[in-house]
Amino acid sequence: MSTTLDRIRGFLAEHDPPTPCLVIDVDTVLERYHALAATFDGCRIQYAVKANPEPAVLRALVAAGASFDVASPAEIELCLAAGAAPETLSYGNTVKKRADIAFAHRAGVREYVIEAESDLVNVAEEAQGAQVSVRLLVEAPASVTPFGRKFGCAADQAVPLLLRAAELGLDPAGVSFHVGSQQLDTGAWDLAIASAAKVFTATAEHGVPLRRLNVGGGIGVGYTGPVPAPADYAAAIGAALREHLPGQAPEVVLEPGRAIVAEAGLVRCEVVLVSRKSADDAERWVYLDIGRYNGLAETENEAIAYRLEVVTDHSAADGPVIIAGPTCDGDDVLYQRTPYRLPLSLRPGDRIDILSAGAYTASYSSVAFNGIPPLRTYCIHSIHEGRPRSAE
Ligand SMILES: Cc1ncc(COP(=O)(O)O)c(C=O)c1O
């Protein structure tokens, strides 16, 4: 049976598209979705569209029965165009304009996540009767790409917001949180679920029982280091639910982005320049045709260390490198602290594959910094629904 890499490299060998480009193997997306759905049995799997909003990815997930976390009117339109029913969309962004809520409501979106009174009032006025969840600010251990304190409110704010939602004629559905993306500490969910349980108890005491708990994304992907298996995350979350919400069995929603698309994607790029800044420098600078602004935003602070594989044949001898992107911005340096080694004979024109690059790459790509176009994506399918392998 062919692997994800075989299929993607087969496509690249056949079509040799200009670099940089991202190739997504849609079969792998589906395989990851089904695996998560089986591991988190009984949970609703709500794909975080921001991770990779490619229409072919969304269409496949719609057909597989996924729900969707959307963050803007544009993401709503993409999901609907892919065939998603509006009831399967949840507006998860707590930072939204009143006009965006009105748009979502007209489109049929029925669930909104909020963290502040003004947004709650806007939802009440623009999306009468909608389901509302409050996002909790959780003091989780730092993830690889943490949110800091940007999103959510403390439990003592969440309770009055949910009670107010009921007064405003909304449907106070539950609580959501996100313990940070690429969260490698499964214990993070225990802290968050303990805090969510306090909100469940307090609102119930005021006659407003909650029924839904959205445990966010955060499932890790093995880029260059080991990560817990999905089953480890599921076990930790299950144990925390049993401990903190005994006998309550809320509807549990899992909102993965990275874990569904990262390993389905590979970026092929090209070496543009190799420069040794002075004769006695140990490291060479290797400049690629992809950088911080055309797809590799998650290299900020060197958070995500992608696995690189040189495609062009080279002798085994390698040496340390600093890796940078192609633009005129001094911050467009990908790795200078994380140790990377590349062949000593590497030269301009050589191709490099960036593995597990399907999440948060194309969707973060700028429109034209230095005139560089957004990262081009090709989606490939093997045989499903009787269709032959094709590229879009
Ligand atoms: C509200 C929300 N849900 C889900 C996700 C997906 O997280 P991950 O890609 O870590 O699974 C994100 C990511 O930023 C998010 O903001």
From TrEMBL:
Known InterPro entries for this protein? Ala_racemase/Decarboxylase_C (IPR009006), De-COase2_N (IPR022644), De-COase2_pyr-phos_BS (IPR022653), Orn/DAP/Arg_de-COase (IPR000183), Orn_de-COase (IPR002433), PLP-binding_barrel (IPR029066)
GO molecular-function terms, A-Z:
ornithine decarboxylase activity
| Positions annotated as active site in the UniProt record | 328
The pathway where this protein functions is: Amine and polyamine biosynthesis; putrescine biosynthesis via L-ornithine pathway; putrescine from L-ornithine: step 1/1
Task: Give yes or no: UniProt keyword Lyase.
Answer: yes
Question: What does the UniProt keyword field contain?
Answer: Decarboxylase, Lyase, Pyridoxal phosphate
What GO terms describe the biological role, i.e. biological process, of this protein? putrescine biosynthetic process from arginine, via ornithine
Protein name per Swiss-Prot or TrEMBL: ornithine decarboxylase
- Cofactor(s), by name: pyridoxal 5'-phosphate
Q: Which GO terms describe its cellular component?
A: cytoplasm
Q: Which residues carry this modification: N6-(pyridoxal phosphate)lysine?
A: 50
Give the catalytic activity. L-ornithine + H(+) = putrescine + CO2
Question: Which segments constitute the Orn/DAP/Arg decarboxylase 2 N-terminal domain?
Answer: 27-262
Its Enzyme Commission number(s) read 4.1.1.17
Organism field: Prauserella flavalba
Q: Tell me which domain of life the UniProt entry assigns to the organism this sequence originates from.
A: Bacteria
* Any Pfam family: Orn_Arg_deC_N
Family (UniProt)? Belongs to the Orn/Lys/Arg decarboxylase class-II family.
